[in-house]
Specification:
By secondary structure, this protein is of the alpha+beta class. Helix content is 24%, strand content 22%. Strands 2-3-1-7 form a 4-stranded mixed beta sheet, with helices on one face. A 4-stranded antiparallel beta sheet has the order 4-6-5-8, with helices on one face. A hairpin with a 2-residue loop joins strand 2 and strand 3. Helix 3 runs antiparallel to helix 4. The longest helix is centred in the middle third of the chain and has 21 residues. The protein is globular and about 50 Å long.
Length: 232
């Protein structure tokens, strides 16, 4: 079976609160479902705060995933368990970056971030991977007690998890799956790169390296700008 992940990244209206972002995320999931010809009404999704979104109209093995940060929402539908996390870089974290790095559980990851030419960007790459791993484990029925109980060593060869990342203009997206190959359909088209081992140095701005498994067939050509509101 070919593993697919359909992604839709949107920008919410200014001042949107958590409830609004949750609603926009569920609207986006319904639009993704319609592209797959699944009938998933917006009001049929499980409520906010009840775990990963679920819908009686979404057929197995398809599953939904959501993440939002500072006015942007990313929604995903996949036919395999997938964890995603989107974060916006907060420059104020520079003031306490050493303390944040020290929270990470693996010494090799901490050292890699300290050695990086862009330690704040490297920290966000690591943090979003922890979040994506936590969400993947939750979907797979073995939730860890906290985000930092996950280990990035699982991304090494033989570790059982494959990761992909996108980092651009202060935004970081991480994707984790047990599948080695994942056909990622993204709107807008993002330069999502496979992460086979965590090296601690961010991809340079404007990087166009993409996953060998990336397949955007059926998605309109577009650049990396995020459209406001819902994409028609």
């Amino acid at each position: 079976m070919t593993a697919y992940l359909d992604l839709l990244l949107i920008e919410a209206p200014a001042g949107s609160n958590g409830a609004c972002l949750s609603r926009l995320g569920r609207e986006s999931l319904s639009r993704l479902a319609a592209r797959r010809k699944f009938d998933c009404s917006i009001d049929g999704w499980s409520p906010r705060g009840s775990g990963p979104p679920r819908h009686p109209g979404l057929p197995a093995p398809w599953q939904a995933c959501l993440s939002h940060s500072r006015g942007r929402v990313i929604a995903g539908l996949a036919n395999v368990p997938v964890g995603i996390d989107l974060e916006s870089t907060r420059t104020r974290h520079l003031e306490r970056l050493h303390g944040l790095i020290d929270l990470l559980p693996e010494p090799q990851v901490r050292c890699a971030i300290h050695r990086s030419a862009h330690p704040l960007s490297a920290f966000y790459r690591a943090w979003t991977l922890h979040e994506a791993l936590f969400k993947l484990d939750s979907l797979s029925g073995r939730s860890p007690g906290s985000v930092l109980e996950t280990r990035l060593s699982r991304l090494l060869s033989g570790g059982g998890v494959q990761a992909w990342q996108w980092q651009h203009d202060g935004w970081t997206l991480s994707i984790c799956s047990h599948q080695r190959r994942l056909c990622i359909h993204s709107l807008p088209r993002l330069a999502i790169a496979p992460e086979t081992s965590w090296a601690g140095s961010p991809h340079p701005p404007g990087n166009t390296r993409v996953s060998a498994a990336l397949d955007a067939s059926g998605i309109p050509d577009c650049d990396s700008r995020v459209p406001p509101g819902l994409i028609q």
